[in-house]
Specification:
Layout: E1 13-16, E2 21-24, E3 33-42, E4 48-50, E5 53-57, H1 64-77, E6 82-85, E7 90-96, E8 100-104, H2 106-114, H3 121-137, E9 144-147, H4 148-151, E10 162-167, H5 169-185, E11 190-192, H6 201-207, H7 212-220, E12 225-228, E13 231-238, E14 251-270, E15 276-287, E16 294-299, E17 313-325, E18 331-337, E19 347-350
Parallel strand pairs: 10-13, 16-18
Antiparallel strand pairs: 1-2, 1-8, 2-3, 3-5, 3-7, 4-5, 6-7, 9-10, 11-12, 12-13, 14-15, 14-17, 15-16, 17-18, 17-19
């Protein structure tokens, strides 16, 4: 029998000792802290209820302006969770290990559903979706998990979504193939999300940057979101420890300003994870600091995961960073999409 894991992975949840819920970001964290963003906080007029306590959402929409609002909320209500990271060169939220009350793990929650826990309709729907994907992809059910409000028991039958995780690089890529096949098959219970009718202002401003063909590609490649029996769902691939090449402390990231550039994607195999990573070549800077050796584009904005394929030419606006290897002398550059500095005005577009 496998022993319970102690590492913090993308899409895990933390409940602090004082009752705040944070969503873990990525798999690499500074010593004694867990990089995460505030998701739910105690609030008398909140819409989310668990037992006798009500909560509100700190981040209403997944874009940078709303993430900035969540960070501002932390600074006002629980500033002890703000953290200045000198290697990443960011100020973000990171929960100290001593403040962790409960560490929620998606795969353990799903296992409790399988083991016979009495399920409500939304929990049953989450299990049924995981079972369907496991069967269709031929990936064992233990590789799946359930995250979001269902994971922490804060889901509401009237409006909550189903959010699943899938663990491992190869498993994530296989589930992507499976989802594309299901969407193309005309399956009636699992369908692709329609284009948004009322996007947030920040998201609408980004969508306006794309021409009709780019928008078509953008929506067609959103394989990990849709409707399952009428309920919105998401599938969130998460790297396992054996997949993670970087350890905290290997690199220092030094901001170099905002740039616009174009380049060719040579490897997109890690673009379905957070951060999404695109290895690029033949990069030309069109605006901002001109440097050589821009080797990758990474996105912490989930909108830009899996939007470009190998061999495609992309246009990018984002924060330029010099990546310094601390255990060696070499360095290179990368462009980051989804930074606080860009304020939601960054993007990745396919050149068509």
């Amino acid at each position: 029998m496998n022993s319970p894991r102690s590492d913090f992975r993308d899409r895990d949840f933390i409940e602090t000792l004082d009752g705040y819920f944070f969503t873990v970001v990525g798999n690499t964290h500074p010593a004694g802290r867990v990089l995460s963003y505030l998701k739910y906080y105690p609030e008398a007029k909140g819409k989310w209820r668990r037992l006798s306590q009500t909560y509100d959402r700190a981040i209403k929409y997944y874009d940078i302006p709303h993430l900035k609002d969540a960070v501002r909320l932390v600074s006002e209500r629980c500033s002890r969770y703000l953290y200045r990271d000198d290697l990443l060169n960011i100020t973000f939220t990171a929960v100290p290990l001593e403040a962790v009350g409960v560490h929620y793990k998606p795969e353990e929650k799903l296992k409790s559903f399988i083991d016979g826990e009495k399920l409500d309709p939304l929990q049953k729907k989450a299990l049924d979706l995981a079972l369907k994907l496991s069967r269709n992809s031929d990936i064992q059910l233990s590789k799946f998990g359930v995250t979001g409000s269902i994971l922490i028991g804060l889901h509401q039958q009237e409006f909550s979504d189903v959010d699943l995780t899938i663990y491992g690089k190869q498993s994530g890529l296989r589930v992507r193939e499976c989802m594309i096949d299901i969407f193309n098959s005309g399956d009636q219970e699992l369908v692709r999300s329609p284009p948004e009718l009322n996007p947030t202002p920040a998201r609408e401003s980004r969508l306006r940057l794309m021409n009709r063909e780019q928008l078509k590609i953008f929506y067609e490649r959103k394989w990990n979101r849709g409707l399952f029996r009428g309920t919105p769902f998401s599938i969130n691939p998460v790297l396992e420890p054996s997949d993670v090449k970087e350890r905290y402390g290997d690199y220092k990231y030094v901001p170099q300003g905002i740039v616009e550039a174009e380049g060719t994607v040579t490897d997109a195999s890690e673009s379905i994870f957070v951060p999404a990573r695109y290895v690029v070549s033949d990069v030309k800077v069109k605006s901002g600091l001109e440097v050589k050796e821009i080797l990758e584009v990474v996105s912490f904005d989930r909108d830009y995961g899996d939007v470009a394929l190998e061999g495609e030419r992309i246009s990018v606006r984002g924060k330029l960073e010099r990546v310094e290897r601390l255990r060696g002398r070499d360095s290179y550059f990368r462009i980051v999409v989804g930074s606080i500095e860009c304020g939601g005005a960054d993007y990745i577009k396919i050149d068509v």
